Amino acid sequence: xxxxxxxxxxxxxxxxxxxxxxxxxQSFMQDVIEASRQQPVIVDFWAPWCGPCKQLGPALEKVxxxxxxxxxxxxxxxxxxxxxxxxxxxxxxxxxxxxVNGQPVDGFMGALPEGQIxxxxxxxxxxxxxxxxxxxVLADARALEAEKDHxxxxxxFAQLLQVDRENVGAIAGLVRCEMALGDLENAQKxxxxxxxxxAGDPEVLSVKAQLELALNPVDTSEIGALKAKVEANPDDxxxxxxxxxxxxxxxxxxxxxDQLIYVIKKMRAWNDEAARKQLVKFxxxxxxxxxxxxxxxxxxxxVLFS
Length: 306
Known about the structure:
transport, 3 domains, protein-disulfide reductase activity, Serine Threonine Protein Phosphatase 5, Tetratricopeptide repeat, alpha/beta, disordered N terminus, disulfide bond, Glutaredoxin, TPR-like_helical_dom_sf
């Protein structure tokens, strides 16, 4: 797949009722943010008393319907959703915002002629096609990464970043590939591309923890001595905690998990829940979809809720 060509697929034509809907503060995340990850969403902020809104609304709906599924439209009554309007910093209405991949990418204030509205929607529809292509390439790159083809996966992630420099999925994927290829220096440089607003993304936090572990390798020479201490006294919780950290450093993640699960099961409150907190740190470092994270969370849940 190459950027700039035709997208791999286009959205199927949707019924008019599916293309245009009223929403509110409670449904905004689902109707706009999440929906825009699949298809561009236009948000019309209006009010019943607003004269220009009555002029813009029908014209906007007409153009959206004519786009035949390339974009969707969500209508927000600012009188009934004042908190949302404040969060979006709506100063006057009508106000129109366009969202792609969960982010506002375009917009305008006031009533526009139908011709300008069409240009706005056509421009947005093109962004939607690019967004679809980006998601498809990201999926291809992740598939290559899962197959341990880190070299080719890294090339695809890097191509994505040339098009969308702030794509955290591509940034995190490239960092993981560079770590797998032993290029920790470039992995650090790539991680620095994460925009401050997205520093808290779970995938970013996970890859950051993995990189920190790679840059600060654990001395595993004491594993044998700690295992002996645990065998001599199974309830030596401090030894189990230290052993878990070393086992994780040696990439023995299942064994590391089991050491901490033992402590949690025996005495969850020990040392201000140190074992549970350490296990959660492991999950963050391994990533939410990692097989050991998933297995570890199941074990933790069975202990906590048994």
